[in-house]
Amino acid sequence: MVPILSVDSLSKRYKNVSALNKLSFNVNKGEVLGILGPNGSGKTTLLSIILGVRKACSGTFNWFGENYTHNINKRIGALLEVPYFYPYLSVKRNMEITAINRNCTTDEIYQAIEQVELTEKLNHPVYTLSLGMKQRLAIAQTLVGNPPVLVFDEPTNGLDPEGIAFVRRLIRQQHENGKTIIIASHNLDEIQRVCTHVIILKNGQSIANGKVDELLKLKQIVQVETDKVEGLKAIVANNPNFKIIDSYSEGITISVADNEAIKLLNEQLTDKNIVPKLFEIRQPSLEEIFLDQVAK
Ligand code: ATP
């Protein structure tokens, strides 16, 4: 099966900053890929290159097995960081302008507006919409003409919890309808909830890439609380088997690779006469995997 998007050794420098460094990955049909990374890790640069807004310094990418041309954007609904609207034109008129390049019918425009629940604002000028409504309108623009691929950069930026839940539902629906979706986000919980796959970027390089549920099995999390916190931290600090994910006054949360490391920790605590008040082992969240990988 030809991947929907194939990125091969993509690099981008801005003067002396390396924003992307030989990045390679594929996205297959029906996947929802989350692109995670700390500030400045290259997420927006990557999205703007694959959408033809910026040029890479080296490397290649293709969509649907074809070399990129601007025509390919007709098959991709994209929302980059700052959506652009004509503020004095109505919701409907803004959508009609977006639709010009997409060969779609008025019914399809109404459908996209309905999907983001803005039908009652159809004839209102865009400047009268709230921030959350504008974000929904931007999402409606990506849906118009029913493109098979959706690309979102921080789709829930500035939204309240209800708005976030709405966008999450919409992304899930689009996934169920068979769309391929790429989302760059800081919101790890959101990525864990809606994405099938994830790539974690750091300094423009991939430091983890794969299915979300498989990444979550890479590590185990151990939370330990004791009266002798300093002794506990000393055991953990210099041991490469353990990585501190969180540290607080009563204890620490660490990631470990396997049961052997947990056994070792128990033995070391016993050796130092440190009695845990809490010793809890659980599966990591995506946030904990992210902290584990990014802190390397
Ligand atoms: P954020 O999460 O903060 O949006 P990001 O992961 O999207 O960050 P990019 O915006 O792609 O990261 O930036 C990657 C690196 O490239 C950063 O060091 C940034 O300062 C630099 N950079 C981005 N755009 C430019 C530009 N136009 N000129 C110079 N440097 C830039």
Describe the structure concisely.
The protein has 296 residues and is α/β, with parallel strands linked by helices.
CATH superfamily annotation of the largest domain: P-loop containing nucleotide triphosphate hydrolases
Q: Into how many domains do the coordinates divide? A: 2
Please name the CATH topology of the largest domain. Rossmann fold
Low-confidence stretches: none
CATH architecture call of the largest domain: 3-Layer(aba) Sandwich
Gross morphology = elongated
Oligomer classification: single chain
Strand content: 25-35%
Bound molecules: adenosine-5'-triphosphate
Write down how many β-strands occur, each being a DSSP E stretch of 2 or more residues. Answer: 14
User: Order of strands in the sheet with the most strands?
Assistant: 6-7-8-3-9-10
Look at the helices and sheets and give the structural class: alpha/beta
| Order of SSEs | EEEHEEEHHHEHEHEEHEHEEHEH
Task: Please provide a written account of the structure.
The chain has 296 residues and is α/β, with parallel strands linked by helices. The protein contains ten helices and 14 strands. Helices cover 33% and strands 30% of the residues. It has a six-stranded mixed sheet with strand order 6-7-8-3-9-10, sandwiched between helices. It has a four-stranded antiparallel sheet with strand order 2-1-4-5, with helices on one face. Strands 12-13-11-14 form a four-stranded antiparallel sheet, with helices on both faces. It is elongated and about 75 Å long. The model has no long low-confidence stretch (mean pLDDT 91). Bound molecules: adenosine-5'-triphosphate. Adenosine-5'-triphosphate (ATP) is lined by residues 14, 17, 19, 37, 39-45.
